[in-house]
Every structure is written in structure tokens, then in C-alpha cells.
Write a structure and sequence with these properties.
By secondary structure, the protein is an all-alpha fold. The chain is built from two helices and no strands. Helix content is about 75%, strand content about 0%.
């Protein structure tokens, strides 16, 4: 195995970062933006 301790540390830090992002609550700004986008899609019939 060519991976050294630095690679394992990077992977562990990356996993911790992703877990933190996924567990974090959504900000009110993000929730408002998502709701606005959903409304625009339902009214305009956009396919994006």
C-alpha cells in the first residue's frame, strides 16, 4: 500500500468535514432560496 500517514489523515479529515456539512442545519437564507426556487419551478414549469 503506497498511502502513508498523511493520506490517512487527509481522508479522516475529509470524512469529518463531510459528516459535519451533512449534519449541519440549513441556514434560513438557504431555506428561503430553496423555497423560492421550488415556487418558481411550480409556477413557471421550468425543467431545470
Amino acid at each position: 500500500d503506497r498511502r502513508g500517514p498523511d493520506d490517512r489523515l487527509f481522508v479522516a479529515d475529509l470524512i469529518d468535514l463531510v459528516a459535519g456539512v451533512l449534519a449541519a442545519p440549513v441556514s434560513s437564507e438557504t431555506a428561503d432560496a430553496a423555497a423560492s426556487r421550488r415556487r418558481a419551478r411550480s409556477i413557471g414549469g421550468a425543467s431545470n
